[in-house]
Structure formats: structure tokens, C-alpha cells
Amino acid sequence: MINQSKYMMGRLLSLTFLSLSLFLIGLAVFQFVEGFNEGKEMVNILIQSVNTSIIALAIFELGIGIGKEYGNHTDDKDHTYIVMRRTISRFVGTVCIALVLEGLIMIIKYSQLDLAGNLFYPVGILIGASVLLSSMGLFLQMTRADCEKVPGKSKLPLVRHLPNDSQDHTQRRRVVRRRA
Prior knowledge:
By secondary structure, this protein is mostly helical. It folds into 2 domains: 1-75; 78-180. Helix content is 71%, strand content 4%. It has 4 helices and 2 strands. It has helices at residues 2-38, 42-70, 80-112, 120-148; strands at 158-161, 173-176. It has a two-stranded antiparallel ribbon with strand order 1-2. Helix 1 runs antiparallel to helix 2 (42-70). The protein is flat.
């Protein structure tokens, strides 16, 4: 019963986010056409449309991630860290890409409008994206050992130490893929 409700909620949320993403793509096209018909500057039209498209991409990725993780009809119980690593990696990666693109678009916009004093905002966005990406890397590193303990569930490489008699220290560690 719980698995069935998880499946239904996963499908419902996934469909909701995918529909919202489709609506935002339509809004981006509408903004482009409307701005073109009103005779606005092409740069402003493109910036507004690209901003809306970036948000649509982030929401689309969230909908796909929810559909993959929670919308499957399986009784397979994945380890919590493995599920969290996959979901967080997907979502945070998409959000970081969206933030970096937003920051770069703002830098271009402010430089074209001669608003150099406002460049603190896009720089802050870029710094925030780098902190978010670094935090994700730290999380992935901290949970790696727990994922390697789960037999047959992880596709992470295992590190095996070679004997100390090796002269070359760069060959001391060798990555061996786990066979499932």
C-alpha cells in the first residue's frame, strides 16, 4: 500500500513539474514573440526568454528526477544514501547550471546597459553557485563510504591499495570496478 501511494505521488508530482515546465517554455516563446512585435531591443527579448527557459529547464529536470526515483513500480529497496546521492546530484547540478547561466546573462545585460555598479548581484549569484557545487561535492565525498558498504547497489569504484614495494607512488592506488 505504501509502495503504491509512493508510486502515485511520484507520478503526480512528476507530471505536475513537467506540465509546469511545458507552460514555462510556452511563456518563453510568448515573451519572445510579444517583445519582437512591440519592437523592444533584441538583447532584452533574448535575455528575458532565456531566463524563463532556464527556469523551465530546472523544473523539467526536477520532474524527471522525481519520476525516476519515486515513479517506478518496483519493490527494490535502495539504500537511502544512494537514492539521496542520485537525486541531490541531479537537482543541484541543474540548479548550479541555471544559476551560472543566470549570472552570466545578468553580467551581459548590465554591461550592455552601462550599469557596472550592479555587477555585485551576478557575482553574488556566481559565488553562491560555486558554494552550492562545492557543498554537493562535500556531501558526495562524505556519503561515499556508506554507499560502498551496500553490496550490489553501488556503481562507485572501489580503491584497492597495492603493495608498498612499488617505486612509483602514483601507481600505489588502483581503481577496480565492482562486479554486480
